[in-house]
Amino acid sequence: MPGQPKNKGLRPNHPEAPSGFSYWETKGWLQDLDAVVVGGGLVGMSAALRLRQRHPNWRILIVDRATVGGATTRNAGFACFGSPSELLEDWQQLGAEATVALVKMRWDGLQALRQTWGDRALGYQDCGAVEAFSDPALFTACRDALPSLNEALGDTLGNRPFTTDVKASDAGLTRLEGVIASPLEGAIDTSRLATALRMHLHRENIGLLTGHEVTNLTHGQGCWTIETSEGHIQAPCVLVANNGWASALLDLDVQTAPNTVLVSQPQLGLHLPSTVHHDRGYVYAREVDGRVLIGGGRHWACPTEAERVERLKAWAVEHIAGVSRFEVEFQWQGHLGVGASRGPLIEDLGDGLYAGVRMGGMGVAIGTLVGRKLADLV
Ligand SMILES: Cc1cc2nc3c(=O)[nH]c(=O)nc-3n(C[C@H](O)[C@H](O)[C@H](O)COP(=O)(O)OP(=O)(O)OC[C@H]3O[C@@H](n4cnc5c(N)ncnc54)[C@H](O)[C@@H]3O)c2cc1C
Questions:
Q1: Structure pTM?
Q2: Which residue's CA is the nearest one to ligand 1's atom 50?
Q3: Residue nearest atom 2 of ligand 1, based on CA coordinates
Q4: Tell me: the pLDDT tens digits for 308-325?
Q5: Is there an atom of ligand 1 within 6 Å of 129 CB?
Q6: What is the pLDDT of residues 248-284, one digit of tens each?
Q7: 8 Å CB contact between 217 and 232
Q8: Sequence ranges of the domains in the chain
């Protein structure tokens, strides 16, 4: 009828103050949502895709404050489950059972990731890894612990995970006390994983609203109000998947830990056949397209970021064969989500609010399964 509003069901988004969202944005993407996912990384996207499988007709929106991405597009792409020195430390601190459980979670997660997207789509390289030791005492301790580690993890991984029958020179490394190989690990092309996920979101009609920070969550009348930097959205169900930033919204034990990554100029004659871990995984390196990627060093007490960068460069020059000069051509920081205890938090917080956060340093491995478990709580 002339003069009657056509969209009677379209509620004003922000009755008490003009919303930053337009009528069209509200109508097209933000109205009548069934679920909102806060955080569009591997966990948030995996959770949204799982929700779609279970609820084909739901209106699902992911909100992310970044315009490009978080740790999911800023990581090193190691498909790993823990280097010997890291696992030995876990073993000493958490015990054998908990260490095996951590490795199992990462291993199962890696298999889920590879089965979901396929090795081709991920650019998966079955390259193995080595741990590079410059501390003689740590090398001896890890070498002595290998029989126990291999025995404890053999059932989970279906194979002996670690071996000492490799030389540093075979791994493209030099000036070390020794190396331990981890042939079951690999590497992915991080950008390909993110691209596969985003293409799939699009296909599954899952909205992705970037550049909007969620600043508060309040509950009333069976619905969550999700306040963002440009107005608010409502949905009965909210999945928080913002990793290290979760404690800004929820009372959870999560902190952000910045992590630096450098990529060098192309290096002639570089030959790093495997990924490289050093010092409990705090330093990591690999070859990408003829360049050295090196990152980490957050355990070094460096007064400035510039000093950490110099130490990472110096490590590469000292220990990677053939690298005499390291010019930084790419440098970025990403943020890990860490807490007092290892392992992610996957929680039903009540009233349709769920959290899947704190991915630590091996989120590539565990992110797919954490996202699915988060969605399965709904
Ligand atoms: C430098 C670096 C190297 C790494 N290397 C490896 C590796 O080699 N192998 C491995 O297994 N793991 C690695 N990781 C860890 C892995 O990348 C992460 O654990 C994983 O990507 C986490 O996924 P996520 O979805 O939980 O978090 P993220 O990818 O960080 O996604 C969280 C998203 O939430 C958004 N967000 C935060 N707060 C808000 C808010 N209030 N409102 C809206 N959006 C918000 C952020 O913008 C972000 O996009 C690395 C991490 C870093 C930082």
A1: 0.94
A2: 75
A3: 75
A4: 999 999 999 999 999 999
A5: no
A6: 999 999 999 999 999 999 999 899 999 999 999 999 9
A7: no
A8: 33-73+192-254+341-376, 127-186+255-338
Which has more pLDDT, 1 or 79? Answer: 79
* Strand ranges for the chain from DSSP E: 35-38, 60-64, 78-79, 129-133, 178-182, 186-187, 207-210, 214-220, 223-228, 231-235, 238-240, 255-264, 275-278, 283-288, 291-296, 328-338, 345-350, 353-357
Residue type, 378: V
User: 71 CA to middle of ligand 1, Å?
Assistant: 3
Phi, psi of 37 (to 5 degrees): -110, 125
Residue 15: pLDDT band with limits 50, 70, 90: very low
Q: Residue 269 and residue 279: Cα distance in Å, rounded?
A: 26
The best mutation among 102, 124, 242, 254 to test binding of ligand 1, ranked by most ligand atoms within 8 Å of the C-beta, falls on: 242
Q: What is the CATH number of domain 127-186+255-338?
A: 3.30.9.10
pLDDT, position 19:
53
DSSP SS3 for 292: strand
User: DSSP letters of 110-126?
Assistant: HHHHHHHH-HHHHT-B-
pLDDT at 22: 87
Q: Please indicate whether residue 19, judged by its CB atom, sits closer than 6 Å to ligand 1.
A: no
Best probe residue, ligand 1, of 62, 64, 113 (max atoms within 8 Å of C-beta): 64
Instruction: Give 166's pLDDT tier (boundaries 50, 70, 90).
Output: very high
pLDDT of amino acid 281: 96
Distance from the alpha carbon of residue 335 to the mean position of ligand 1, in angstroms: 6
**Candidates 50, 65, 73: which one to mutate for ligand 1, based on the most atoms within 8 Å of Cβ?**
65
Q: How far is the CA of 10 from the centre of ligand 1 (A)?
A: 35
Ligand 1 centroid – CA 364 distance (Å): 9
CA of 110 to the centre of ligand 1 (A): 16
- Position 10 pLDDT exceeds 70: no
Q: Is 205 helix (H, G, I), strand (E, B) or coil?
A: coil
Residue 2 pLDDT more than 50?
no
Q: If we measure between CA atoms, which residue out of 110, 108, 116 comes closest to residue 129?
A: 110
Architecture of domain 33-73+192-254+341-376: 3-Layer(bba) Sandwich (3.50)
Task: Say if residues 105 and 252 touch (Cβ distance below 8 Å).
Answer: no
